[in-house]
Structure prediction request, 80 residues.
Amino acid sequence: MSSIVIGPLGVAVRRIDMDASAIAAMASNNALAQVQQEASVEVLRKALDLQGQSAMQLLQAIPRPPAVGSTAGGVVDTWA
Prediction:
């Protein structure tokens, strides 16, 4: 149940009357939402860690280019 009252600065404000069971239900819902949010963040962290590990494995699988000065591909003709 709510009602409109005039606040201390002469502004109309809505006052909400709540009983103890409504307050307890809201507190319970807030706690549940917080637990769900923390679980979602943890799942996201684990997914990002797994993705980072996969990216690192892909980078390590790339063959190394030949060293500069080796016989293969050591000279580039820039005048062509």
Q: What stands out?
A: Helices lie at 20-61. Residues 49 and 55 are 10 Å apart (CA to CA). The mean pLDDT is 82.
